[in-house]
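Entry 14: structure prediction run for Ribosomal silencing factor RsfS. Input pasted below.
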Amino acid sequence: MNALQQAHWCAHYALEKKAQDVCILHLTPLSSLTDYLILATGTSDRHVQAIAESIRLDLKQHHQISPLAIEGMEEGRWVLLDYGDLMVHVFQQTVRSFYDLEGLWAEAKRIEPAPPQA
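Run finished. Output tokens:
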């Protein structure tokens, strides 16, 4: 599975948990840090944690892919799942607005989540 397909799966799993404002940013032409950022918003600490945990578990169970690192799961305000070629950020709305990753990466191509292909 390539990084874009994996990004669509992450977005799909986030949307299954009722994440809001899910988007994929393509960073390959702009950064060597990662190829894609997936951004999603949860409505509470527990919701952010549930979205992030669903992505982690579903990628592991269905695709045998585990994150290289996880940050912020305990607090649930901003969880980062680092998969190398892509990074998943699940925020509460106030945190997402404050850090404004969409603004930071305004030049990145925005990809709307699509149903993933098996």
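Notes: Residues 22 and 40 are 4 Å apart (CA to CA). Will compare against the previous run tomorrow.
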